[in-house]
Amino acid sequence: MNDTARSAYLDASIATASPARLLVMLCDRLVLDVTRGLEAELTGDPAEANRHLLHAQEIVLELRSSLRVDAFEGGPALDGLYEFLHAELVRANVRKDADLARGCLALAEQLRDTWREAAMQAAVA
To answer: DSSP readout, 75-97?
Structure first.
């Protein structure tokens, strides 16, 4: 698939996705960015690590800004989790710390899995 076709497909996927699916897509990309940032850090490419970890930070900020904290009981705790993850991503990036990046990856994977499960349950209900 060429880049133009891929871009058109992605644009259509995003435009037609449910809010729950969009959330899962964001979390999938978050995991991908942190994974790529960690890999770049481990292979000695700080510029590439920075690029991916910055994008991961942007995703977490988007997740946090779209969160309606008062919409459910766990909202404030989720906001705190997003705040913590963002701060850890910044630290991992600034310090070029692969261990911090690994911790961020584990947390991002847990978030993705949780949101994926919630989206599947919502689709069934």
So the answer is: HHHHHHHHHHHHHHHHHHHHHT-
